Amino acid sequence: MESKTPLYNCHVQAGGKIVPFAGYLMPIQYSGIIAEHMAVRERAGLFDISHMGEFLLEGPDAVGNLNRLLTNDYSNLQQGAARYSPMCNEQGGIIDDVIVYNYGNMRYVIVVNASNKEKDYKWIQNNLFGNVVLTDISDQTALIALQGPLAQTILQTVTKALPQKRFTVVADADIYGAKCNISRTGYTGEDGFEIYCDAQKAVDVWNALLTVGEPHGLIPCGLGARDTLRLEAALPLYGHEMNDDITPLEAGLGFFVKADKDDFIGKKAILEKNSSLNRVGIKITDKGIARENCNVYSNDKKIGIVTSGTYCPFLGGAYAMALVDGEASGDITVEVRGKRLAAEIVDLPFYKK
Amino acid sequence: MSIKFTKTHEWVKFTDDNTAYIGITDYAQSELGDVVYIRLPEAGETLTTGQPFTDIESVKAVSEIFSPVDGVVSESNELLDAAPELINEAPYDTWIIKAENINKTAEFLTEEEYNEIIKG
Predict the structure, then answer these.
(1) Which segments of chain A have a pLDDT < 50?
(2) Which residues of chain A lie closer than 8 angstroms to B59, CB-CB?
(3) Given CB atoms, is A29 within the 8 Å cutoff of chain B?
(4) Residue A338, pLDDT score
(5) Looking at the DSSP assignment, which residues form a beta bridge with residue A295?
(6) CB contact, 8 Å: A10 with chain B?
(7) A28 touches chain B (CB under 8 A)
(8) Nearest residue on chain B to A319, alpha-carbon basis
(9) Does residue B41 register a pLDDT over 70?
(10) Considering only alpha carbons, which residue of chain B is nearest residue A313?
């Protein structure tokens, strides 16, 4: 039996097409994936991502634990700032990728993927040391993403306290009486905000944003557009570009592995793994779409496998990310239902603001 | 020209006993979502009732379209090469193939019967 987010009824009333995803009943689309995708690139879109997990980590040893659990360095994460990181197992494989917020007074919030919530909670709990307490606050927390070039224009009509810089957060902002933490982050390749609020206030915040945003072209968007937007921006997704067997270096996330900090879980394995896997971008030049698990060939040699692929509405073509062995470049082919489609290796990201 | 439906969400409009236009229903296009590619069969390709005659790609997924008749493709709708979204915009005005030499068909449904099926 799937769970519902606090906004489930809003989605149904607005005509959202509901599908099960990561244990939740979520809207995959409202007006259509292409229309929603283009709204976010050109104006603004509103997403319910309350299915994601939030864990509060607090205590004098909180930062020490983050630095041991995560590959990025949290020793200099300022209050009011956010930082992305892979979280690895002892073999260097990625358990999940997370964003951590520093709310001050030794209080941190770790935001995890919906599908990994239980796995992550157990892993973190089992690896904690010292004076620190972990609490799952997912069920009481709603998360709404407002994304697109007009996101700031829309949001500043309902609240004064906006985070000015990317990867910063304003705590306890007020949106029509609802206390919100507003973060300048997102998963679309656009400017935008992620708004954390009490689950009981979620409907008020959602409706308020849609009302003030409507004259600016804001529309509700589903998980379908969330996926095409992140793929167009070449943002990796857990379970596709990352999994328990792939290290952050293989997934192209080396920037988020700080080898010069003190020991962290998976460090030795990540640095010692002798791998020639790389994440690359592919543009399909034939007619057709390469999707997950399609084989990638250079000449007639299989060099890798597609991890995500779809039609990218803003760019107007089919693109894919793939994990390939060694360096790949130039013309390649991708096998789609028994046929080889012509394609080429292109730079990531496909789309950059 | 009366329209007939199949359980697999195609529509057929006969122009005479052996010739018909074939497309997909409004319900089918709405389930697929935004259509971005469709393979256009070549004239002369054989059609077999209940067997796929092409693939249609929406942003979400790829699906097969099943032939509602035994026959031969006489023409594909070339407009769909540049504008596959016509299938979303006007599913009943947008034929995908024209079939000829039709000598057998699927069990067709009337509009009322088809509407009962998609109501579930």
Answers:
(1) none
(2) 33-34, 224, 228, 310-311, 313
(3) yes
(4) 93
(5) A305
(6) no
(7) yes
(8) B59
(9) yes
(10) B59
Paired tokens of A161: 């306290």
What does the pLDDT look like over B61-113, one tens digit per residue?
999 999 999 999 999 999 999 999 999 999 999 999 999 999 999 999 999 99
User: Quick check: B2 pLDDT over 90?
Assistant: no
Token pair for residue A164? 């000015």
How many CA atoms are closer than 13 Å to the CA of A28, on its beta-carbon side?
15
Nearest to B57 among A28, A29, A289 (CB): A289
Q: Could you tell me the residue ranges of all domains in chain B?
A: 3-119
Q: What is the mean pLDDT of residues B38-49?
A: 97
Q: What is the pLDDT of residue A161?
A: 86
Å between B18 CA and nearest CA of chain A: 32
Indicate yes or no: CB of A287 within 8 angstroms of CB of B62. no
Q: Does A308 touch chain B (CB under 8 A)?
A: no
Q: Is A317 on the interface with B (CB under 8 A)?
A: no
Indicate whether this complex's ipTM tops 0.85. Answer: yes
CATH of domain B3-119: 2.40.50.100
Please judge whether A313 and B59 are an interchain contact, meaning their C-beta atoms are less than 8 angstroms apart.
yes
Classify burial at A84, counting beta carbons within 10 Å of its beta carbon; exposed 0-12, middle 13-18, buried 19 or more: middle
Q: What is the 3-state secondary structure (H, E, C) of chain B?
A: CCEEECCCCEEEEEEECCEEEEEECHHHHHHHCCEEEECCCCCCCEECCCCEEEEEEECCCEEEEECCEEEEEEEECCHHHHCCCHHHHCCCCCCCEEEEEEEEECCCECHHHHHHHHHC
pLDDT digits (tens, 9 = 90+) for A54-67: 999 999 999 999 99
pLDDT surpasses 70 at B115: yes
Which residues in B65-82 are b (16+ Cβ under 10 Å) and which e? bbbbbbbbbeebbeebee
Which structural domains are found in chain A, ordered by start?
3-50+139-232 (3.30.1360.120), 54-136 (3.30.70.1400), 276-346 (2.40.30.110)
